[in-house]
Fold this sequence. Notes:
By secondary structure, this protein is an alpha/beta fold. It has helices at 7-10, 29-39, 42-45, 86-96, 114-129, 169-180, 200-209, 226-237, 251-261, 268-278, 286-296, 315-327, 337-343, 365-377, 405-430, 448-457, 466-482; strands spanning 14-18, 47-51, 57-58, 61-62, 76-79, 100-103, 133-135, 141-143, 162-166, 186-191, 215-220, 242-246, 281-283, 308-312, 358-359, 383-386, 433-437, 461-463. The strands form four sheets. It has a six-stranded mixed sheet, sandwiched between helices. A five-stranded parallel sheet has the order 2-1-5-6-7. A five-stranded parallel sheet has the order 15-14-16-17-18, sandwiched between helices.
Amino acid sequence: MTDHPLDPIFHPRAVALVGVPSTGAAGGGGWGFLTSLLEQKFHERHDLYPVNPKMDEVEGLKCYPTLLDTPDPVDHVISLVPARAAPGLVDQVIQKKVRSLHFFTAGFSETGDSEMANVEAEMIARLRAAGVRTIGPNCMGLYVPDNGLAFMNGFPREAGNVMLISQSGANAGDVVQSLARRGVRFSKVISFGNGADLRSYDFFDYAMHDEQTEVVTAYIEGVQDGRKFFEAVKRCAAVKPVILLKGGLTSAGARAAHSHTGSLAGDIQIFDAMARQAGAVRAADMDELHDLIVACNTSVRRVRGTGIALVSIGGGYGVLASDAIALEGLDVPQMPQASQDEMHEFIPVAGTSVNNPIDTMTRKADEMERLLKIVAQADVIDAVFVNPIFNGPMGTRPADPGTTLDELERRANEAAAENAQMLERLQRQTGTAFAVITRDRGAPPPGTEVFLQQCYERGVAVYPSVARAARAVSRIRQWRSRREGLPDIL
């Protein structure tokens, strides 16, 4: 823990779930908070108190009739009660001397109902006066893997270095689960909904000070207090990469944002100018947000020039891929003659090309490593996009008849790990960034999950298409140029 005033929110000694549904999973989203905390093993490290007067026990845990009946201390409360019961819960939270309250409960200012907006404001005023900080209402709350906090099932239990600040709980969940498959792990995730008390700028300030966090990203619908938001993003972006995704760019999106969290979306030109001045980058869409996060934690962040080598199979694929690279302001330069001659020492002339794109294929691991090293060492190349040599075990003998599925999977995983190690080795030896293009062709082959995880852990980027890899490289280069005069964090 640090001495930041928000730090206790992320490290509660005990959590109470008030309003756990007595109907189990049929009770909807409220049930998921209990099961996700159990899945993260929070109850094995800290105290977890379900609260519902209709039950004595739930999932092996003692259930309490009210918050006031739980043992002391309770640091963090998750409110699963309906909106009409929320003011009464606030009374108990204050009496219990709770440090933080997360309102999963919705039905307040986001509805546009002035009476419920007033109820929200009155509750927040009372909680603030009592020293209780509030997340929400109308949000999913916290995911802190190091402390066993989570708001959805299936989140990784391992912590990482990325903090996500999101007005949307569903989007936050999608980011965590989608990027988990690509190896990304999170230090902390906050879904803050209406932001009636703690707002995005509060969490940017925390992210700047959090030693576990090295990359900060956010999904924002509407900015609350533009000056505070700008200053907090600017301070954070001066020391850590900050990636922003803005929702509500169109009139339709703005209407959706207002009905979702009660946010006024604001002008995108103003938001873009803010991001540029702060030294942050705005992702165009969710895919780009994912890809920039991967870029910031792999060798892609180091690419400074425009020369891209493409190693693949298929002339037609190479043509379209070259177009995709060029459309992002990058180049597919001709390989130097010396490099071509060296590759032709072991790559046949017929049916291949070593010019760039490099249209060739070998299943011999030593030959592929030699090929990639020659390409990466060419003085015209700043990054190597390689595909599809990792679609299954490379350089291994065919399976014998009768080989079990477990044995095939084991061999595939071993080969995948060896391939990732090879790319890490090449990056280290040549100083050139590598990006693997998975080139989706149906069901992923055995070893894919291990390969994705191993690549990310070893600083090698993996992208689902050449276009997305090229866009990530181009955006990183633009971002770096716009940060002139600021510390080099990319």
